[in-house]
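Quick start: what a row looks like.
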Amino acid sequence: MHDYFKSILEFRLPDDLDDVPSNRSGVYVLCLRFPSDYELGLTSGHSDLERVVAVIRRYVMRMSKVIGFQEMYGTVRIGGVADHLCQESKASIVRKDLSPTSDLFESYVIQNAGDRSKVQELAMALRLGVSAAPPLYVGMTAKQSFQARIGQHFRGETDINERLSCFGLDWSMLSVKCISIENTSSDNVRQLEKIIQALLKPKLSKQ
């Protein structure tokens, strides 16, 4: 059976919140979204390229921050084979993006300053790359509708907004995608959520 609710649905908040299904539940993800040419102001023949580049730069830097972030927890063992001579300490490591994203971006901008077509190509390439990035958050709902649960996130009734703000992100930089899972148990939906989480390691899902 294939119908509207068996497809992957995509929404942007707050504009589409009322369109999020209010009678369906299942699995949903929050993904990074790069702005359209219209949002960037590139559809006009008289675009302010300096402003456009500034907007793109802000998106790139914020997205780089969250994509390159990783927290690691473990135990450090000091000593050799003999257990009674060893010491163990709990440790946590935060990995941050050390890639030359900023340098590469600025180099491209300097080389192509004032060239509208090159700025548009930059936006297109970034939009393609961001669309392929893993989701930032994977969630599920079984007893609530998509609209109820996602609305809770958006209104700050969960801690998602706090996690987003840590990276300078907001809902305008996200898209919400969901697929309806009907006629099944909450445990089954939870298993599907965990499979996606285990595969894609979403940065904003609690580790």
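That is the whole record. The chain has one domain: 4-69+95-200. The CA atoms of residues 64 and 97 lie 7 Å apart.
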